[in-house]
């Protein structure tokens, strides 16, 4: 028993000695390396001076134009503003004015024989009535006023006389027919006038009513003449003598 204890003690002593020798050797190596590092000379290092970076340019709105044009969340976005111009229809052209075949001044007011266009059926028109697209606002033996599309048009009767018919003459007279033109200054006022010869073949004018016909231009038959069942009547008025045929 004692022999085993002595042998164990010897082994422990040998192990402790080996460990001490190994620690001593490691310490010496570490000291040598430390001494070697302390004695090494450092070499100077050349330092390259730093080059400053270029300054960035300022931002301009034009660089961000595509941001507005190519919006990922709104593909239909467009910076171009479209101004819609309201389309206006061209103004309606005014149709030709009605034509006049004669004017008759009556106590109840002036009446004019008119048609919408030359060659069409004519009828009697007084102030307040409409012929074609025109409304007659005012009418007398010399002037007429129309209304068309909110506008007033004033004309002289002789400007509207239908001159396509040779019998229509050059102007509206007071006897429901064209009046003769006034004498020029070159004519002598004192010159004797040729007497008017009676018309031996009287002809009636256009129909005013069922029982009244107008006198034709240049009708020189005397008052009371009977033709085709109508009697010629001449009535004085403030505007002159009114001529008509009465059934």
Spatial arrangement of strands, main beta sheet: 8-9-12-11-10
Rough outline: rod-shaped
Low-pLDDT stretches: 166-201
Number of helical regions = 2
Residue share in helix: 10-25%
CATH class of one domain equals Mainly Beta
Instruction: Please name the CATH topology of one domain.
Output: SH3 type barrels
Number of strands: 12
Mean pLDDT: 77
CATH architecture grouping of one domain: Roll
Query: Which class best fits the helix and strand makeup?
Result: alpha+beta
Biggest sheet, open or closed, and with what strands and sense?
Answer: 5 strands, antiparallel
Strand % is 25-35%
- First-last Cα distance: 184 Å
* Topology pattern, helix = H, strand = E: HHEEEEEEEEEEEE
Radius of gyration: 63 Å
């Amino acid at each position: 028993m004692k022999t085993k204890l002595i042998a164990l003690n010897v082994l422990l002593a040998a192990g402790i000695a080996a460990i001490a020798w190994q620690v001593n050797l490691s310490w010496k190596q570490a000291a040598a390396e430390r001494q070697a590092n302390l004695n090494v000379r450092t070499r100077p290092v050349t330092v390259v001076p730093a080059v400053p970076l270029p300054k960035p340019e300022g931002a301009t709105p034009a660089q961000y134009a595509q941001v507005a044009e190519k919006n990922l969340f709104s593909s239909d976005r467009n910076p171009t503003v479209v101004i819609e111009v309201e389309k206006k229809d061209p103004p309606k052209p005014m149709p030709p004015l009605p034509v006049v075949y004669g004017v008759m001044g009556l106590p109840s007011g002036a009446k004019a024989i008119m048609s919408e266009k030359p060659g069409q059926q004519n009828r009697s028109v007084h102030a307040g009535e409409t012929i074609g697209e025109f409304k007659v606002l005012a009418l007398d033996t010399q002037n007429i006023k129309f209304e068309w599309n909110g506008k007033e048009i004033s004309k002289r009767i002789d400007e509207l006389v239908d001159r396509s018919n040779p019998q229509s003459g050059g102007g509206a007279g007071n006897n429901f027919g064209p009046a003769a033109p006034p004498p020029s200054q070159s004519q002598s006022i004192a010159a004797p006038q040729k007497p008017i010869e009676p018309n031996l073949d009287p002809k009636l004018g256009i129909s005013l009513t069922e029982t009244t016909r107008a006198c034709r231009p240049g009708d020189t038959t005397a008052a009371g003449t009977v033709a085709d069942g109508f009697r010629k009547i001449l009535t004085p008025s403030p505007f002159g003598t009114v001529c008509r045929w009465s059934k």
